[in-house]
Design brief:
The structure holds two protein chains of two kinds.
Chain A lengths: L12 E7 L3 H9 L1 H7 L6 E8 L6 E8 L4 E12 L3 E5 L17 E9 L2 E9 L3 H9 L2 H20 L1
Helix pairs in contact in A: 1-2
Chain B lengths: L2 H13 L3 E6 L2 E6 L1 H38 L1
Antiparallel strand pairs in B: 1-2
Classes of the chains: A alpha+beta, B alpha+beta.
Chain lengths: ~160, ~70
């Protein structure tokens, strides 16, 4: 797979970070289910109910989220490109084994690249999205409302911690 | 770009309601529909918040892992 891709600032996300932790740990926390479960979901919102990651091209990417009220939301996709401790690419456009996906969510392709800087790691998370029509659909399905509720819960939680 | 494919592009934009057009005589005028772009911006801002928060937790967790390793 080519390492180059075009970013559309109107549709895509690029988050660049530095953390003073060796690259080996960054890779592990990103690719091992037992680690991913610890950070993927905000605790007041819900949890990761199930996670399966077969980290190789065509391998399964599966994260099932359970919200606080017990509802489960599966996220199924497939890894496209895996260079240990350097680059991880997955998409929800394809099911495991590259099978064309069936979904009702907004598909993304996520790209994480990392490099060692001093004693730490610089990593870049990129999410590629499809088009503007998707955004509208996403809004209609209550994504916005869900996010607002989550933020409210989060604020309540932080307030409870302080008192 | 030749005229037919240019028209095709515009038609896609119009179907997504990112532009509007008016025909006066033989001239069709296209206008950008700003409200529609706002939807995209809001949506992207939400995605950004989601991932920023997720990466904050990721970084916190990594720091914990590192501390655990240096203790053991």
């Amino acid at each position: 797979m080519s390492t180059s891709f075009a970013i559309d600032p109107k549709l895509d996300l690029v988050l660049e970070r530095f953390i003073d932790v060796p690259r080996r740990l960054v890779w592990e926390a990103l690719t091992k289910p037992e680690h991913l479960k610890e950070w993927y979901m905000p605790k007041p919102w819900g949890r990761v109910a199930a996670c399966e990651l077969d980290v190789r091209p065509g391998g399964i990417f599966s994260i099932t989220i359970a919200t606080a009220d017990g509802q489960e939301f599966p996220n199924l996709g497939c890894f496209l490109d895996v260079v240990p401790m350097e680059r991880l690419v997955w998409t929800s456009m394809l099911f495991p084994g590259y099978r064309p996906a069936v979904f009702d969510d907004i598909p993304i392709t996520a790209i994480v690249t990392m490099e060692t800087v001093g004693t730490g790691t610089r990593y870049i998370f990129t999410a590629l999205h499809r088009d503007a029509a998707d955004c509208e659909k996403n809004k209609a399905t209550g994504f916005h409302q869900g996010t607002e509720i989550a933020v409210d819960q989060f604020v309540a939680h932080v307030k409870a911690m302080k008192s | 770009m030749r005229l037919p494919s240019f028209m095709q592009h515009l038609s896609v934009l119009e179907r997504s309601r990112l532009v509007t057009s008016k025909k006066r005589g033989r001239v069709r005028t296209y206008e950008i529909a700003p409200a529609r772009f706002k939807v995209v911006e809001d949506w992207l801002a939400d995605r950004r918040r989601l991932w920023e928060a997720r990466l904050d937790r990721f970084d916190d967790y990594l720091t914990q892992l590192k501390e655990q390793e240096s203790r053991s």
